[in-house]
C-alpha cells in the first residue's frame, strides 16, 4: 500500500524509483555505496526494497535513534544480527559459517538465536565482526551487504572508529558490500571526502533519492487513494502538493491519516509539524550556542539575505556579532540539510515547525 507509513520492502509499493532501485541493486557488487537524500524522501524504503529484490544476505543496522558510545553501537549491532538470524536462519550453510566464526571471537555470546556483543574491555572489534562475515560469505560463495542507515547519527569518537573499521574492511575484505545512508548529507559527504576521515580516498558509488515533481505528487496521491477506493477533491490535492513540496514521506503521512478518518488538512499538517518540531528540538539539544534557535526563527520569518539576517541577530542580542559566528551557524544548518545554499528551508514542514518553536 502506497500510504503505509512504514518503510517499504516490496517493489510494487516503491513509487516511481525504479532507476534508483536498479542502480542500488547493481552497486551491491561494489565495496561501498552511499545513499543520500533529504529526510523523508524514501532512503530506507529504497534500501530495504533493493535488499529484498536482490535476495542477497544482509544485516541492516538502524542508527536513526542516535549512537554516542560503544554500548549504544554494540546493542544496535547485536539486535541487527538477531534480526538476520530470524530472517536468514534457513540458509543453514551461511548461518553455520557465521556462528562458527562468531564463537571464536572474544566478547561474543550466542545462545540459540540470541546474540550479544560485549562493549566493555573485552569488547569485540568491529573489524573482527566484518572478517567473520567476509569469511562466511566467501565460503558460501555470496556477497554480504552491511547497511548503516542514517550513519551520521553516530556522534563523537565512536564515528571515526566505525569509519576506520569500514575502511579496513574495504581494503581487505572482498565479500562485503557496505551501504551508508544519510539525510544530513554534508556530514555523510565529509565521512567519505574529508582527507581527515579514514574512508577518504575509497571509491564509492552513490544513489540519490529526490523530491517528486508536481505531476508525480498528484499521481502518487491519486494512486494511493484509488487503492482504498477513496475520492479526494482536486482542490485539496492541489493544496497538498503545494504545501508538502514533493516530499514523499509527508505525502504518505497525509494519505495515511486521510484514509484513516482524519478529514481536516489543517489537523494533518499540525500533526506533521509537531513531529518536525521534535526533530528540530533534538538538533538544537546538541548545539552549545542558543543562537541557532534565533537564527532558525529569523530564517523562518524570511530574513535570508546575509546583511538583514546579521542585523536582526545583532538587534536580538543587543550587540555586534562577528561575521564568523553567523557563517559557522549557517554552515552547520547546511551540513545538516536544514537549509540550502540560499538559506531556504529544504523542507516546508520543518520551516513551519521552526516558526512554531
From TrEMBL:
Keywords annotated in UniProt: ATP-binding, Nucleotide-binding
Domain MCM C-terminal: 289-343
KW ATP-binding (keyword) present: yes
GO molecular function per UniProt: ATP binding
The keyword Cell inner membrane is annotated on this UniProt entry: no
InterPro entries: ATPase_dom, P-loop_NTPase, WH-like_DNA-bd_sf, WH_DNA-bd_sf, WHD_MCM_arc
Domain ATPase: 20-247
Signal peptide: none
One matching Pfam family: ATPase_2
PANTHER family per UniProt: ATPASE DOMAIN-CONTAINING PROTEIN, DNA-BINDING PROTEIN-RELATED
Protein name: ATP-binding protein
Organism the protein comes from: Ignisphaera aggregans
